[in-house]
Amino acid sequence: MTETLQDLLAARFGEKLDIPDALGASPVARSIANHRTIRHYRDEAVAPELVRALCAVALSAPSKSDLQQADIVIVQAAEQRAALAALLPDNPWAAKAPAFLVFCGNNSRQRQVHALRGHPFVNDHLDAFFNPAVDAGIVLGTFIAAAEAIGLCTCPISAIRNHPQAVAEVLGLPAYVFPVAGLCLGWPAHNGAMSPRLGLAATVHVDRHAGAEVADQVAEYDARRNLTRPYRERRDDTRFGAAVEYGWSEDKARQYARPERQDWGKFVRARGFKLD
């Protein structure tokens, strides 16, 4: 990697940042800042022992109150891979990636610990779901950072939650355990493309949140992103119109103008969670 951390962050956020020497010299920081969208992989296996070791690294991440409520399912059996891939027709790389994992939140273990120790489980409300969901997200992000630092590429798949009950059945998830995201893992077949991000003025605040007005920040981002990463396809022009200027904001507004995962809350409650 020849770009400096400053170069990478400028390309990502459209802003030249002052980078302290220690951070600028960090290969891990440069690897994270250089994250690329890559969904095509070399025809080369990722050794099982490497996948397992990366899981251990990821599970070394911080955990809320040391409760350790994240699990990883490494999906190796061809039958299970095929069953999950069939649920993800818009993500064909889920079938083709050399390795595939599913990151889960697990509140079952905590409840069993209470039973083993003879203590009541009294915090049976939204927090019991929220904590493992966050833990799983932290572990997922840490796994991605560790994998990409050694040259692997990853692609998280949130669409695993489009069919949560089917996923739970394929993976044998017990009550109080739920899928958060799938993850494709492999050796990259190309260099991929960097996705620009919203400017830091939109997402980084000092002392107090800057407020809810986003029009100027979104307009700046739409224009900047369209210079380097314009959308190749438009969502549903038949419904929304082909004459509308298209960028990130139009794409995301169209995406969430369609119903999605309306059964997710029902699934989570069926897992046993109370979401009050």
Quick structural gist:
The protein is an alpha+beta fold and 276 residues long. The chain has 14 helices and four strands. The chain has three domains: 34 residues, no CATH class; 167 residues, NADH Oxidase, CATH 3.40.109; 56 residues, no CATH class.
Describe this structure in words.
45% of the residues lie in helices and 10% in strands. It is an alpha+beta fold and 276 residues long. The protein has three domains: 1-34, no CATH class; 36-192 and 261-270, NADH Oxidase (3-Layer(aba) Sandwich); 200-255, no CATH class. The longest helix has 24 residues, at 126-149. The radius of gyration is 21 Å and the shape is globular. It starts with a helix and ends in a 6-residue tail after the last helix. The model has no long low-confidence stretch (mean pLDDT 96).
SS element count, helices: 14
Secondary-structure element order, N to C: HHHHEHHEHHEHEHHHHH
Briefly, what CATH class of the largest domain? Alpha Beta
Largest sheet, in brief, is:
4 strands, antiparallel
The assigned CATH architecture of the largest domain is: 3-Layer(aba) Sandwich
Write down the CATH topology of the largest domain: NADH Oxidase
State the domain count. Answer: 3
Strand order of the largest sheet: 1-2-4-3
Q: What fraction strand?
A: 5-15%
What is the rounded Rg?
21 Å
Q: Could you say which overall geometry the principal axes of the C-alpha atoms support? A: globular
Low-confidence stretches: none
Helix residue percentage? 40-55%
Number of strands: 4
- The end-to-end distance, rounded to whole angstroms, is 48 Å
Question: Strand pairing plus helix content: what structural class?
Answer: alpha+beta
Question: CATH-wise, what's the superfamily of the largest domain?
Answer: NADH Oxidase
Average pLDDT metric: 96
